[in-house]
Amino acid sequence: MGMSYLEGTCPKCGEKTREQSNTWCYGSPIRFCPRCKQEYLDRRWREVAIDGFDPKSTSPGFYLKAFLLLVVVAAISGGWLYYTTHVKNYYSTLVVTVVIISVIGAVACLGLSIWIALGFAAKTNSHYLEESKRRLRNADYVRKLQAYGYVIPSEYLVGIGNSSGEIRES
Ligand SMILES: [Zn+2]
Fold this sequence. Notes:
- The protein is mainly alpha-helical.
- It has three domains: 1-52, no CATH class; 61-117; 138-170, no CATH class.
- It has helices spanning 48-51, 61-86, 93-117, 120-136, 139-147, 164-169, and strands spanning 3-9, 16-22, 30-32, 39-41.
- A hairpin with a 6-residue loop joins strand 3 and strand 4.
- Helix 2 (61-86) packs antiparallel against helix 3 (93-117).
- The two termini are 36 Å apart.
- Residues 10, 12-13, 15, 33, 35-36, 38 line the site of zinc ion (ZN).
């Protein structure tokens, strides 16, 4: 659970990109274009050892509220659909679409909320944090992030071998 796709455009060659990501885009913000093979920065990805977790992934409340809102939307649009088909003998495809989307959205939000409440999100979060820490143990990678303007926590600057002046630069 929690898989989705992130769409974008390569800033180097303009290629449309579509990458699999988890719901909260945890991963390296340094991406590689499948067409021109060049790397570029995509800030939508969270390097969690630096950026921290998305608050939505650590508390079930956000998705529970979204679920309740979508239930209200589904009830109102469903009621309207029922009224028009049974009393007025017509229905609008727009209303049908709203009913379907709100029901699917409500189920997805409830699922995510439960998933977070049961601690599964915390489990995958710690997995993504480990991956992030592993990337930050690579000095070249850390310097690259600094060049992109990231402020690197001091624990990842130990042993990367540049002067403290260079470190403060970013
Ligand atoms: Zn490209």
